[in-house]
Amino acid sequence: MGGGCDPGESPADAIVRELDEEAGLIPENLTELFEITDHRSLGRIITSFAAALDGDETGLFLAEGVKLHFSAPDHAEESQRL
Questions:
Q1: How far is CA 9 from CA 18, 37, 68, 74, in A?
Q2: Where does residue 75 rank: exposed (0-12), middle (13-18), buried (19+ CB within 10 A)?
Q3: How many CB atoms lie within 10 A of CB 72?
């Protein structure tokens, strides 16, 4: 998912909105993990979050985008390089 924050929107509010819009998911227990700077593009800040998912992600229909990546919180930072 590659959505960004709308004007005045926090990263946490943006990820909740984007997950709902693009995959019909409402994250539970959302926790900010870390922020990194994407030096491969325009230097945007990427914020990673952890949340609970009760279900099978392989059956999700993505309304937008082409990839939704799940990883364990312990491996989230290295998955940003994928």
A1: 12, 18, 21, 27
A2: exposed
A3: 8
Contacts 24+ apart (CB under 8 A), 1-10: 1/64, 1/65, 1/67, 1/68, 2/65, 3/64, 3/65, 4/44
Over residues 12-33, the pLDDT tens digits come to: 999 999 888 888 888 888 999 8
Q: Contact, 52 vs 29, CB < 8 A?
A: yes
* Residue 35 token pair: 């922020």
pLDDT band at 61 (very low <50, low <70, confident <90, very high): confident
- Nearest-CA neighbor of 25 among 48, 59, 2? 59
Residues with Cβ within 8 Å of residue 43, at least 6 apart in sequence: 37
